[in-house]
Amino acid sequence: MTKTIRSLERGLQALKALHATPISSLHDIYEQTRIPKPTLLRILLTLEQSGLVSRRLADGRYRISSGLTRLGRKRDRYDRVAETAAPVLDRLCQKVSWPSDFMVPAGDHLEIRESSRTHSPFMIYVNKDRIGTPVNWLLSAVGRAYLAYCPESERKKVIALLRKSDRPENWLAKDPARLDAILSETKKRGYGLRDQTFAGGAYGTQSPDGLAGIAVPLLDRGRVHGVINIIWPKPARTVEEIVTQCLPSLQAAAAEIVNSLRKRPNMT
Amino acid sequence: MTKTIRSLERGLQALKALHATPISSLHDIYEQTRIPKPTLLRILLTLEQSGLVSRRLADGRYRISSGLTRLGRKRDRYDRVAETAAPVLDRLCQKVSWPSDFMVPAGDHLEIRESSRTHSPFMIYVNKDRIGTPVNWLLSAVGRAYLAYCPESERKKVIALLRKSDRPENWLAKDPARLDAILSETKKRGYGLRDQTFAGGAYGTQSPDGLAGIAVPLLDRGRVHGVINIIWPKPARTVEEIVTQCLPSLQAAAAEIVNSLRKRPNMT
DNA sequence: ACGGCCGTTTCACCACGTGGAACGCTGGAT
DNA sequence: ATCCAGCGTTCCACGTGGTGAAACGGCCGT
């Protein structure tokens, strides 16, 4: 009578826990499985090297590979993109030292879905900017890059939505002429920049983030899968310095992400 | 520096081999992975108990759970049904002792997709009737059960196709009146029976299989997912005996298969 | 009747999986 | 500024459980 392999059973158990909760901290998985954490760590490392699991750059949480969740769970299409972007943003961060975010539309704002901020040697981890943090459409570098390159129908929908808003950070939606000028300038320039009046975070906030950034879209045959940026403390560099030093790398990263998105719906 | 877990790695390796070749013998998997067979046996038993892999009744080959192949591989919709049917047919066979087949349409014939023939205590494994063996539409019990219950559009397509055929076993397609009578009688009766002139196997074969059978459809809201039957050596029992002894169990099995088909697109 | 192939069982060895303990970091509370 | 709680990670000694060569047995083709 053949017996089963315990270590394999437990590995699959961990995989199933991740299937039930597609993004989990080590502790989350521990709670579900009651497998001791050191053992879980080895299991997850093994799953990661087998390509079934990856880790989120921003907070180190474990993420089940998008190929395994097709059934049952409802995850939006951006999860695949975030997963694909993670290793590319990691390498980008190692190359240019400044960190990046990956951001996607979320109704009347964008939100952070992945980030290499915690991996940058220069920038302290800013507690406020976690996964899911909302970012303004019209004043941020990422929002402008997105709108400048996305299909017209999508742009119109976003602007129509923002026009209904009374918040001061959305006023620009009520000035189509100026907005169009800004977006066409962005497109000509090739990357998005913050509005000069915009200090980051909530509009008119008492704690501006003190950051500057440049942003490019993940452009795939007219479709935009999201935006990635490079950010730095405003006093440290001028935009011009970053553009010459980092923009090509940022654009290459965007191209690489889009490229591997096209191939990769396989189990490794 | 944490290390990975070898046994888990190998388990996943076997799983990937099955992903590449969704139905494989132990030897097939051995060829791909070069993991010793005794170890593979333990791995596959573990995967099976975790619900990721199941075994085909007919020949014991390993079959990756349909939930894991959604991406990449092209398998037809009947694979899921076969997988669901297997354990039910196994239990049915243990209960009534006579074996069953699960059959599905395949162009101008039906074919065997699953079978408990090897699990029956009474019937010798007949070498010719393997997975994939073609079965006649109009003379067999299974073909008649299928046509009697499937949607009219589907029935018409099949008959139109068979009318083009010159083979003697398809002649009935050219006699709509008689065929309609046979099918409506089948529907009234509730199960399919072989034509009296039909000896099994290829029409006019020198080696009739000497079997008799009754067949019922897997009927799901007007849709037919295939047919299951019970077969026995003709001399051993009369149709009437089998109908009273086994038909209710056969119908219950069909209902159970359809039922679990509806729920089950999950990872266990 | 025979031989080869494939699946399965056995068993003794010792790598390897295991988990308690201890460390370090971060964030929140006081 | 200080402390504490919670989480992730590393270390290491123990002994279990994974391992695979060898042997067995059943089926298939000849």
From TrEMBL, chains A, B:
What's an example GO BP annotation here? negative regulation of DNA-templated transcription
Q: Does the keyword Disulfide bond apply?
A: no
Fetch the SUPFAM superfamilies from UniProt: GAF domain-like, Winged helix' DNA-binding domain
Q: Which InterPro entries does the entry mention?
A: GAF-like_dom_sf (IPR029016), HTH_MetabolicPath_Reg (IPR050707), Tscrpt_reg_IclR_C (IPR014757), Tscrpt_reg_IclR_N (IPR005471), WH-like_DNA-bd_sf (IPR036388), WH_DNA-bd_sf (IPR036390)
Q: Which UniProt keywords apply?
A: DNA-binding, Transcription, Transcription regulation
* Entry's Gene Ontology molecular function annotations: DNA binding; DNA-binding transcription factor activity
Enumerate the Pfam families for this protein.
HTH_IclR, IclR_C
Boundaries of every HTH iclR-type domain copy: 5-66
The residue ranges of the IclR-ED domain are 67-263
- This one is known as Helix-turn-helix domain-containing protein
Species per Swiss-Prot/TrEMBL record: Bradyrhizobium australiense
